[in-house]
Fold this sequence. Notes:
Elements lengths: L1 E12 L14 E14 L9 E11 L4 E12 L18 E2 L5 E2 L1 E18 L9 E19 L19 E15 L6 E12 L1
Amino acid sequence: MFKLITLLALIFCLSVNSQNIKDSTIYAPIFSLNYAFQIPVNTLSDRFGTNNNLGFSGGIKTKNNWTYELSTSFIFGTNVKDTTIIDHLQNNQNWIINQFGEESVVLIQERGQVFSFKIGKIFNVIGPNPNSGLILKLGIGWMRHKIRIDNENDQIPQLSQQHLPYYDRLASGLNLYQFIGYHHMSNNRLTNFFLGTGIISRIY
């Protein structure tokens, strides 16, 4: 299973020394809030369409422009293709009748989490200083995803919390992370960000 991601992030970099960032590479803790728009392909695309990924990471950038990060992110979306899981509960009008004999609204969404350790290298081919430039990242971690079923006021007995594990298609496993993009640290250390594109692949 593969996911193509476009990643936008704000990086908060705190320098621990008085080096001139314009002329030399520096050591800095890095913390980022990031967002990715994801396009599932291969087997995952049979179950889900495009989704969103909102995450946080923390780590360090060394004086040799290596980065080491731990990250976690939350996957969410409403584009679920595999709706057959509740077909047998629907009547001829495609409604599901609740315990009071009324038509109920059922929401089907995607949910997931990703936990990763990433190693990156910054190459100063572009950017305002030696701490900025092309960045390549590789990572390994753990990924899980499922179909979230939300029935109105929990009034459908077949979709109660104790029965949902039979429907949610929960899957998890190791993931590999590959990323290429641009890492920017401004000379005044106030405007810091990275952006790029990458692939998350889950190992079954």
